[in-house]
Amino acid sequence: MTSDATADRIDPEHFRSVLGRHPTGVVVVTSLDEAGRPIGMTVGSFTSVSLDPPLVAFLPQRGSRTWAGIRARGSFCVNVLGAHQESVCRRMATADPGSKFDGVGWRPSAITGMPVIEDSVAVIDCTVDAVHAAGDHDIVVGAVEQLDTGAAAVPLVFYRGGYGSFVPTSLAAVDEDLLGQLRLVDRLRGELDRLAARLDTECTLVSLVRDQLILTASAGPARDSAASTRVGQRVPFLPPLGGVFAAWGGRARFDAWIAGLEPDDGADEVTSCRELAGRIRERGYVVALGHGATAHLESVSVEVPVRVPGHTPPPLHAAIAGVRSAYNPATLDATATYEFAYVSAPIFGEAGDVVLALSLYGPGEPVTGAAIEAYGREVTAMAAALSEGLAV
Ligand SMILES: Cc1cc2nc3c(=O)[nH]c(=O)nc-3n(C[C@H](O)[C@H](O)[C@H](O)COP(=O)(O)O)c2cc1C
To answer: What does the pLDDT look like over 167-213, one tens digit per residue?
Structure first.
C-alpha cells in the first residue's frame, strides 16, 4: 500500500541502491511512431507473465516518449540484448528519440512489423493487451504474437548501475560430471586439432554423461552439419548411439544402453543389441553409414532435445531407430561404395574404462568399403594413442 508517509520514509537514492542489487537482463522495446519511423527504449523491467495465454510485460515510466508512441501504435517488439550490444543499450536509453536508431540495423518483425534489432539474442513480437497504472510507471502487458531466438550470444546483464554478461557458474555447480569430461577433453585438444589437420576431416570427441552422449569437442572442417559447430549437441545413450561405450563399458553400461528401448523397437532388439556390441568389439570401432538418416537425426536432436532425463521424445526416438539398420553392418564389401558418415573408437582412461569416443567423419561423396576400413584403422590407432596420452 503506497502512502505519502511511506514515500517520505524511503529515500529515492536508497531505493535505487537497494533495487540495483537485483540484476536484470536488458531489452530494447521498439515500435514505430505515427510517421512510421523506428522508436525504442532500453528496459530492464521486462518479464514473462503467462504461458496460456502467452503474455509478457514491461514497466515504462509514465513520461517516456517512446511509451507514448508504443501506446498509440498498439504493438511493440521486445529485443533481448546480447553482451555485444551494450552500445545499442546505451543509445536506446539516452539518445534523442529521433536519433536512437542512427547506425542501428533493423528489419520489420513478421507479424506486427515492429523493429527487430540486428543481432539480438531473442525477439518477442507483441500487441498491447492491457495497461495498469502503478505509481509513476505503467505495467504494460503484451500479448505475444510470435517469438524467436536470435544470435547465439550471451545476454547483456545490468547490475548496480553497470553492465556485464552472463557467466555460467552453474556448469560447475550442477554438472560436476560434465566438468570432469571437459577437463579430460582439454588434455586431448592439441592432439585432436593435429589429427583433424593431418586428415583434413572433422574429428570429434563424445562424452557419456549419465544417460546422454554429449559432443564435447570438434576439430577440422564440419562437412554436413547445419550448425557452425556440433559442440554441445546431445543425444540419448540409446542403441545404436554410443555403441563404443556399450561395447567396452561392461555389463552395467550395456544394460543402461538398452534400458531406453521401447516395445516398438521389436521383441528381439535386445538380442540384436548384444550381437551388435560383440560386432563392434570384434571390429574395434563403430561404423555409421547413411548421410540422410544421420543428418536427420542430428537436426531432430537439436529441434526436439531430451528435456526430461530418461524420456526420449518420440520424434527423436524414431530418428534414432531410423539409423539403427545402417550402423555397424556385419560386413563391408571392399569394392562397393557406401554413404559413410563416421567411424568411432574408444579412448580409455587411467582405470581402463571407456572415457570418450573419438570419431572421424567421412567425405560427402560415397566411399568404398576398403576406404572405410582404412578410416577405421586410423581412428582405432589414434584412439589408442590418445588413451596412452591419458595414462601418463
Ligand atoms: C539498463 C536500463 C534499464 C532501463 N529500464 C527502464 C524501465 O524498465 N522502464 C523505463 O521506463 N525506463 C527504463 N530505462 C530508461 C529508459 O531507457 C529511458 O528513460 C528512455 O529511453 C527515455 O527515453 P524516451 O523518453 O525517449 O522514452 C532503463 C535504462 C537503462 C540503461
So the answer is: 655 444 446 677 788 888 999 999 999 999 998 899 999 999 888 89
Does the beta carbon of 258 lie inside 6 Å of ligand 1?
no
* Nearest Cα to Cα of residue 227 among 131, 129, 303: 303
| Contact assessment for residue 117 and residue 190, using Cβ atoms and an 8 Å cutoff | no
For residue 126, give the amino acid letter: C
Look up cell 542489487; give the residue.
Answer: 21
Count H helices and E strands in the chain, helices first: 12, 20
The answer to whether 348 and 358 have CB atoms below 8 angstroms apart is no
Quick one: which of 31, 127, 111 has its CA closest to 79? 31
Distance (Å, whole) CA 239 – CA 323: 9
Using the mean position of ligand 1's atoms as its centre, give its distance from the Cα of residue 43 in Å.
5
Contact between residue 204 and residue 288 where contact means Cβ atoms under 8 Å apart: no
Alpha helices in 33-85 (DSSP H): 65-73
Q: Which of 258, 382, 232, 248 is nearest to 324 (CA)?
A: 258
Give the span between the Cα atoms of 369 and 331, in whole angstroms: 9
**Is 97:108 a contact under the CB 8 Å cutoff?**
no
Q: Taking the CB of residue 9, how many other CB atoms lie within 10 A of it?
A: 9
Rounded to 5°, the CA angle 256-379-198 comes to 140
- Centre of ligand 1 to C-alpha 303, Å, is 35
Cβ proximity of 320 and 241 under 8 Å: yes
- Structure ipTM over 0.85, yes or no: yes
Q: In the chain, what are the domains?
A: 4-167 (2.30.110.10), 173-391 (3.30.450.40)
Test site for ligand 1: of 19, 61, 117, 139, most ligand atoms within 8 A of the Cβ: 61
Q: What is the pLDDT of residue 307?
A: 66
